[in-house]
């Protein structure tokens, strides 16, 4: 791994979709804290969007993604293999024991595409639902901080929705 910063292109990589299709290595340093959000259709409650702060750790073309424990009561983890801007891998969600899904563990596959800035990625997940039907939906991640030191992780160890509400409250009303 070089000295590139998160969101910066690796100058040794070509900027073409064909290089990704050929399996060339990842062109971005993607480590940091990200806001993860995905949507699924609950069979009993309709569409649900879940939000987490996650920390991405990168070793070469491998990304390990884990939610911060205070960011949601149903932790998620992802494992992605990057080929150019394309990430392909798996996800797992451990639902809250006292929640609607009563501690069920869901898992499936995921494919995302990193945008040209290296600061966001979006794609689709696929997996099974409570009634054992295959479902799918959007999944997106947005970079919020390139640091992963202990103080930074503690700062983001809370709900992204609560953090956004607090930020808006501190700014005051907009006109």
Q: Count of DSSP E strands?
A: 8
CATH topology: the name is Lipocalin
Tally of helical runs? 3
Strand content: over 45%
Distance from first to last alpha carbon: 46 Å
CATH class: Mainly Beta
For the record, the count of structural domains works out to 1
SS-derived structural category: mainly beta
Description:
The protein has 175 residues and is mainly beta. It has one domain (22-171): Beta Barrel (Lipocalin). Helix content is 13%, strand content 45%. The chain has 3 helices and 8 strands. It has helices at 17-21, 150-155, 160-171; strands at residues 32-42, 46-59, 62-67, 76-83, 86-94, 105-114, 120-128, 134-145. It has an 8-stranded antiparallel β-barrel. The protein is globular. Residues 9-23 have low confidence and may be disordered.
Provide the fold topology.
Blueprint: H1 17-21, E1 32-42, E2 46-59, E3 62-67, E4 76-83, E5 86-94, E6 105-114, E7 120-128, E8 134-145, H2 150-155, H3 160-171
Descriptive labels:
175 residues; Lipocalin; globular; eight-stranded antiparallel β-barrel; single chain; mainly beta
Summed up, what is this model?
The chain has 175 residues and is mainly beta.
